[in-house]
Amino acid sequence: VALVEKAEDLWGKVEKLRNKANELSIEAESLGQEAEDSAADVLDLLKESISEEKLEEANKAQNSCIDLASLLEKAKKSTEEADQIEVLAEEALAASESALEQHLIDFPEDDEIDTM
After folding, report:
1. Angle 79-83-89 (CA atoms, 0-180°, nearest 5)?
2. DSSP readout, 20-85?
3. pTM, entire model
């Protein structure tokens, strides 16, 4: 029973991490579009002339790109962590199945009771 509970706990963690990675990816997609639009606007602004205001806009666009990179890195780490925990969950599930099979070999009368 403990092995099954461990597997269930690990699968729950995998689900949470996958959801987090998905949320981060959606947020990154939105931020990516904003960064792209901002960069395009800045390029247009800088073609005309350079001013302190335009340089500040360029700085904001650059910061958006940095934020996007950071967000993508977090999403990647969540996905990698979910992958690692998923392997542990699969191992825990296999161990619980093996323990159940061994229990049924050691105590065949328990299997007979379950099937009645």
Report:
1. 135
2. HHHHHHHHHHHHHHHHHHHHHHHHHHHHH---HHHHHHHHHHHHHHHHHHHHHHHHHHHHHHHHHH
3. 0.70
